[in-house]
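Hello K.,

You asked for the raw outputs rather than the summary table, so here they are, unedited. I folded two proteins back to back in the same session to keep the settings identical. This is the first:
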Amino acid sequence: MLNFELKNPTKILFGKGQIDNLNKELPKDAKILMLYGGGSIKKNGIYEQVKNALHGFEVVEFGGIPANPEYEVLLQALKVIKAEKITYLLAVGGGSVIDGTKFLSAAALYEGDSPWDILIKSIKTEKGMPFGTVLTLPATASEMNSGAVITRAETQEKFAMGGPGLFPEFSILDPQVVASIPQRQLANGITDAFTHVLEQYMTYPVGGYLQDRFAESIMQTLIEVAPRVIKNPADYEAAANFMWSCTMALNGLIQKGVPGDWAVHMMGHELTALFGIDHARTLAIVAPSHYRFNFEAKKEKLAQYGQRVWGITEGTKDEIAKAAIVKTEEFFHSLDIKTTLSEYTPDFKGTAEKIANRFTDRGWVGLGEHKNLSPANVQEIIEMSY
């Protein structure tokens, strides 16, 4: 097992009725900017619950953060923060709203010339404006980590950011919110969380036995509850296990002591930036081809995954590893998630070369757990995903 450090300061309030405890977590003198997305929280009762819990606080609202948090929209919110002298941020939404709030947390205290530099220069935020979250859509675990991904439509780019100053102070996770989530978003959340685990697991063995078992248990739980959540989002037991699995998938625990990949995410981000494809679906497009292209380097873990997660016991190591990739694709298909780029856009030709050139221009020349995937390799993987 590799050396590691682990610190996660986020307080989790999990379960029914926890939104009522929101006011206990906020500084009494806080001037709060409440951030949310397209307005679904006003239809499903969450907005009213949050507003009731905020009674007595000075609250300014900013809605309209899109599914891929857009830089120009966030700059409008940043103006509100400065004009209104906001002291505390509250994200009420899914990963996109929380990611956007993290950018604002960093940008509000940033002293440089342009907040865009935080993204393109990979500036780690050591201290941001304090914020909390009320999770409405399980998927990204942004409610319990310090990372975010921001999109800029003007340049068709999508960049990650983060730093120790961007952990939420608290996050409220009430599984009852799952009952109002549309099936497409439920499928995206399951796929996103599942792929988060794969990115931290599907590398090579380093003797991290417990970490492997943690990762495998999260994937097994998602596989078990996925059909129940899709069939009946109001199934509280299934919703609770789905929500907590999504959080555990990327809260920092399972990545410690083991190598990580993340090349699938880096390629997937480009497909979202270029075509607007849902983030989770870009991961499902890229992952199977990525594993086939890197089969020799990953087959030990692929075979372990096939045996432990999918129960494949017959065949050689290579056969079990290859069958595991097929099982993964079938799982995505069971959620009505398509796994080839051509199923999402007729304009896929030339995409691989364009992405490879972008990676070259940015100096992203060594991706994956071994830091040996070149832009030319990226081009091949994307072409395999057509």
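The second followed immediately with the same parameters:
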Amino acid sequence: MGQTPIGLPFSKIAGLMSGGVQNHGFKGISIYGTKAPKFLQGDGGWNRIVWMPKDLKVEIADAIPEEVYDKIATEEDCITPKDLENFLREKKHPVVEKRWKDGKPAPVKIPLPGHDWPDETREIPK
């Protein structure tokens, strides 16, 4: 229930994810999928997960690598983007070192739902 760090309530996110519709910036996955050895492998796996609902984190605790478990925030840790940024920096989450530029999150321009990615080559932070 309530808000998420991206400024949307869970109910809005559920609406965006339901009905088999794909929207840029959202990834639907089953509980079983989080336990797969290749979970988000192309995106960095668990090192890319920065926030999730506490109930989900507890439910899949056995799938989350020990070295990153305490670095993933929940609604009990933060709700606002600024608080999440501070949490990740304080916990030394892998995303801070590997994906941020000059100590700040590197935004990705995501097309609106129903729009394609631009044809130009986009730079993905390393």
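Residues 30-99 form a domain with the Bifunctional carbon monoxide dehydrogenase/acetyl-coa synthase(codh/acs), Chain M, domain 5 fold (CATH 3.40.1470.10).

Happy to rerun anything if the numbers look odd on your end.

Regards,
P.
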